[in-house]
What does this fold into?
Amino acid sequence: MEVIGGGGGGGGGGAIGGTDLYQGSGGGGGAYSKKTSITVVPGNSYTATVGTGGPGGLGTSGGTLGGDSWFSTTGTVLAKGGSGGESGATGQGVSGGQAASGVGDAGSKFSGGDSANTVVIGEFGSGGGGGGGAGGNGGNGGTPPAAGIGNSPGGDGGAGGYYSNNGFPGSTYGGGGGGAGWLLNVPKQGGNGADGVVMITYTPQ
It folds into this structure.
């Protein structure tokens, strides 16, 4: 059983009154957990919950946390979603889903990539790239607008909005959305985080 949490949404970009300028950091990538032996009873039903990607923020709103992915119960196997990106004059990068908070076999839990801080270049704000989803540890967002590279099967993060652009969505599975840049009073949208996944591999008896 392999599970990846949803990626966090990127923070929005815009301005308040044309003077207070905001740009968004990217969302964090979803974590990964694996469990190689799970006992199931033939004929019984089991719940598989796929963490949804967090929506990106609009304007001066931050992004939303990605959902957790798990199978059967949250105590069986669990991977955490990535944090939602921030929106601010100096939007700070956020963390990916944490391996320590997941449930799985020892040595088979990995954290999602962290997103990048925003930068201001001259009169323009550039959104931070989203963190990559995990397979091994997900890659961190780079210097804006570069996104983090996922570790297979985790998806890449979305690129940040360069200057006045919207952020780009994260890639399946678990990539964090990119943060938005800003353009005066025109609200810009952070990229949506990608959904996670629940993957089941079995051998018929």
